[in-house]
Structure formats: structure tokens, C-alpha cells
Write a structure and sequence with these properties.
Shape: globular
CATH class of the largest domain: Alpha Beta
Distance between the termini: 46 Å
Bound molecules: adenosine-2'-monophosphate, calcium ion
Largest sheet: 7 strands, mixed
Number of domains: 2
Strand order of the largest sheet: 3-4-5-6-7-8-9
Number of helices: 7
Order of helices and strands: HEEHEEHEEEEEEHEHEHEEH
Helix content: 25-40%
Number of strands: 14
């Protein structure tokens, strides 16, 4: 199967999963907590992941899937074709707001991201990218990111990091929020990365993200010129939880040098 055929298949699978989620919006949810009281999962997160796993196992028995809810495979390396899926990114928004959440999917071949998708289900907005062929919002191509500077930028950052905490120098983040034009926090890593790809945000940072939060967006944002790394400036890790910074190329290094200071652990 060619990459274009796989792209068409993945898009139609995501759209079908999105229709199922939209149909579920009026129904009662079963809500559980995971790592902590604010880390939510619903029956729809699980049903959506199972839907992907069943289809991919049926149609591509040689492919593997890493999913947040654990219905896929145990993945320790990126050999072969690997789908990395977050069935609902922004579950808290899904539960409380019925918007501002997305399906996030990245497809990797021998460790290289070849196809990326972020589907804003409620607005029927599909961000997608094929490696080397640009990024799209529905049928419209996203422009390459243009030059900016810290004082003119809008940065996605969670207000948690403005408070004293064991991980990040919060005084430096306060300086960042003072120096930029505006701070935003949407509560869905995937959508925030999509906003960086489209230039609506100039950067997005998060202290702890998992592979499924970033896999789709990483591929999309790369196509418009965004730079992704962890807070130490090392390449984003797609197999383990790590800090994550994605930014317009003209401010990425400045953010690392001047504003993002991790405390020694
Ligand atoms: P999720 O909704 O799929 O859990 C919220 O700021 C963003 O961080 C969401 O994209 C959320 O993804 C992600 N996130 C990653 N790990 C999280 C955790 N342990 N608790 C809450 N949100 C987490
Ligand atoms: Ca999720």
C-alpha cells in the first residue's frame, strides 16, 4: 500500500471515529480517574481506541498501535509501521465542555513520522500532514511559519507553571508571560500543537507529555517549520513521557535559553 492510500484510509477512519464521538455527545458518560483526580478517562475514550485497534488489526495485521488507553500493543521500539493514537486528547474539556478536544494520530515507518492527524471533532476540522508534502487544515494548505520575536508572540502555557513547583523555575515563566504579547491555555496538547503549526500560537510548552499527545502534531507542525524539543533542547522523544516545547523557529532557542529553566531533580 502506498503512503497516499494509507493516508486516505487513516482519514476516513478518523472521520468515522469522530462521527461516533459526536453521536455520543448527548449520552451519559462513564467517567473514571487515572493517575490523579484530574486525570480523566471516559467510556468514549476507550470505545474510540478499541474502534481504531479493531479496524487496524483487521485491515493491517502487520502494523502495531500504541494507544493511551492500552488496547493496542506493548511498544518498545518503532520498527515497522506503528500507529500512535490518543483517542481523545483533552478529556477534561470533552467531559466539561463538549469541545476543545481532538483525536490525535501519528503513523511512523521505521521510526520516521510519515503521516500526522489532529481532528477537532466538534468543529469538523482535520489537520493533516504527509512527510515532505506540507500540512493542511481540511483542504487548505497551511502556510510556512513566518518570522516573529518574543515580544510579538502568543505562547500556550498552563498557569500551573506560574506557581512555585518542584520542576520549573516559575519566576522565569512569570518573566516569559510578562515579555510576550499573550499567554493561552486550551487544555488539549494536540490542539495547541496544531495552533503552533498554523501560526495561531507561536509556541506551546508542557512539562510532561506522552507519545500519543504529540505524535500527530509533531509531524504536522514540522511541515510548517516549527521546531520541537524537550526542555533541555534534545529532540522530542516519541516513546517516553518527557517535557515538550514546540515553537516558531525564530523563538525556539530564545525560549530555551532565557525562560525555561528546569530545577535539578
Ligand atoms: P489527555 O486529555 O489525553 O489526558 C492538558 O493540559 C493536556 O495535557 C491534555 O492534552 C492532556 O491529554 C495532557 N496530559 C498528559 N498527561 C496528563 C496527565 N497525567 N494529567 C492530565 N493531563 C495530561
Ligand atoms: Ca487522551
Amino acid at each position: 500500500m502506498t503512503t497516499s492510500e494509507l493516508d486516505r484510509y487513516a482519514k476516513s477512519l478518523i472521520k468515522e471515529a469522530g462521527r461516533r464521538i459526536r453521536h455520543s455527545l448527548g449520552s451519559d458518560l462513564t467517567i473514571e480517574t487515572k493517575a490523579d483526580a484530574n486525570d480523566l478517562v471516559t467510556n468514549i475514550d476507550k470505545e474510540t481506541e478499541r474502534f481504531f485497534v479493531e479496524r487496524i488489526r483487521r485491515d493491517f495485521p502487520g502494523h502495531r498501535l500504541l494507544g493511551e488507553e492500552g488496547f493496542g500493543d506493548l511498544i518498545e521500539g518503532l520498527e515497522g509501521t506503528v500507529w500512535i493514537l490518543d483517542p481523545i486528547d483533552g478529556t477534561m474539556n470533552f467531559v466539561h465542555q463538549q469541545r476543545n478536544f481532538a483525536i490525535s494520530l501519528g503513523i511512523f515507518e521505521e521510526g520516521t513520522g510519515i503521516l500526522g492527524y489532529i481532528y477537532d471533532v466538534v468543529n469538523d476540522e482535520l489537520y493533516s500532514a504527509k512527510k515532505g508534502e506540507g500540512a493542511y487544515l481540511n483542504d487548505e494548505r497551511l502556510a510556512d511559519l513566518s518570522e516573529t520575536a518574543v515580544p510579538e508572540s502568543i505562547v500556550g502555557v498552563n498557569s500551573t507553571w506560574l506557581m512555585p513547583n518542584p520542576y520549573l523555575d516559575h519566576e522565569a515563566i512569570i518573566r516569559l508571560v510578562r515579555d510576550i504579547r499573550g499567554a493561552r491555555s486550551y487544555g488539549s496538547a494536540a490542539l495547541e500543537i496544531a495552533h503552533v503549526a498554523s501560526g495561531r500560537l507561536d509556541a506551546y510548552m508542557s512539562l510532561r507529555l506522552s507519545p500519543w499527545d504529540i505524535a500527530g502534531g509533531f509531524i504536522i507542525a514540522h511541515e510548517t517549520g516549527a521546531i520541537a524539543s524537550n526542555f533541555r533542547g534534545e529532540p522530542a522523544n516519541l516513546l517516553e513521557q518527557d517535557s515538550f516545547l514546540i515553537a516558531n523557529p525564530s523563538i525556539h532557542q530564545t525560549l530555551l535559553d532565557r525562560y525555561i529553566k528546569m530545577k535539578a531533580q
